[in-house]
Amino acid sequence: MLGHTHESWRKKSDKTSGYRLNIVVLNDTCEVDGGAARIAIEDAQQMARRGHRVIFLSACGRPPLNYEGIEWRSLGQKNILQEPRRWLAMSRGLWNFSAATELKKILRQLPTQQTVIHLHSWSKALSGSVVRAAKSSGIPVVCTLHDYFVACPNGGLYDYPTKKVCTLVPMSSACISRNCDSRAYAHKIWRVVRQFVWHYLAGLPQNFAKMIAVSAFSEQKLQPYLLKRPVAVIDNCPVLQRADGLQEVKRYGVVYAGRIASEKGIEVYLEACKKIGVTAEIWGDGPDLPMLKQKWPSANYSGWLAQPELQSRLRSAMGLVVPSLWYETYGLVVTEALAAGVAVIVSDHGAATDLVENKVTGLHFRVGDADDLAEKMKHLIDSPQVALAMGKEGYQRFWGHYRESHEHRIGQIEKCYQEVVGLSDAP
Q: Would you say the pTM of this structure is higher than 0.90?
């Protein structure tokens, strides 16, 4: 399924003549199934609005209809977790020949000196084959590091069986011999083979002309494995709409919103709710949702929420909890809560702690400690004026600089493009 084309970018070319770029965006999917896809799509739209020609290539998903100025290309494949033919999932996960072929076809039609490739996610469908295809074309690649896959076989610097962050050196003998996978050791070995293929055949990360870390925290964790390649730290803040005023009448208590997966620490939140006798509110979807519904039937589960509905519900919450057990690289839902005027409780490790000032815009709790989380949740619930004050402070700080910082963020990404194609002196 090769998607549709919008031609409106041509009308804007005069505004940026001489510096209008061809930007080929690569992401596993062209549907919003998580933070990486959301940022990839939103940033592509921002670049199209700036007058650049944007081509969005994905392996999965149906091209959206409401993002003008973007030329969509989708291969109509399934990601490797959803592909029922496991032999195909395993082989395509190692090397997606169709994605590489389609990318080469696109790049042959574009001038090398005015084209840049922006890679977002590749681990679930595209594979490292697209990086090899880009290298053979001579067109530079900018890669946003939304996760830790450039270094870590399971992408999270996380040990699933122990439910703790991993301290082993990625791809060391200790790493290879350790069963850190969420499924079985055989799957870990496949991931190790995949990592070797990506490193030695695709050339990750040495074939990236520039990398973008989404937080100073994730950059610090990844730096030893980036082979001294150039890295820019540019935060991952999404496009958000400001509501008129703060909502002081709260229909919900302290809630969880986001992907439903074990590394997100949702069961720590459920345990905390049980300890203080409140009903858990879980807004989102993911692989662990069926298990949670069976194990914790008393919780309220909303399923996946469209962005407007999520924002509306957040404004009606006393607080949001982000109980992640692994190292978050950023924390999009934290920014959404701050934008909605909601106090945020976060685990005391990972990039999310940099977004929430303890006892000012929210609270920090000891990672994995349900008792400590229960105490922090009870504090907000029993002291609604404290929760409202924290939410108000977070709201004012966020919107006080959002528009300016968001424009700066997009400008910094554009600057990365100009640097790798030799237009660093462009206005």
A: yes
